[in-house]
Amino acid sequence: MCEIVFIDSAGRETHVVAQDGETVMAAAVRSGIDGIVAQCGGALACGTCHCYVEQPYLDLLPPPSEEEAAMIEFVMEPAPNSRLSCQIVARSVVDGMRVIVPDNQH
Ligand code: FES
Hints:
Blueprint: E1 2-7, E2 13-18, H1 24-30, E3 50-53, H2 57-60, H3 66-72, E4 82-84, E5 97-100
Parallel strand pairs: 1-5
Antiparallel strand pairs: 1-2, 3-4, 3-5
The protein binds FE2/S2 (inorganic) cluster.
GO molecular function, one term: electron transfer activity
Domain 2Fe-2S ferredoxin-type: 2-105
Organism: Rhizobium tropici
């Protein structure tokens, strides 16, 4: 288990406990986090699970696959710390990870 802190555009924080093996997207959807739409259900086909991962957590994650990196080019307002939350699997190294949820996914 690990805790993930989702932060909205107003700076409000929601703390969610993710199970081992669960993706950050699944934990967000299960917890009703607004802004993580995840239209494709994690199939790496929509980009609507886009989020920004704060440091130092970003550097602790495995780098994005070629497919994830390509999809990030099509999200709204991509940034160097953009990731697709459906591709991040919760594990102990990201305990306490802070994730900023974009205002808009479309
Ligand atoms: S849920 Fe569609 S790309 Fe992540």
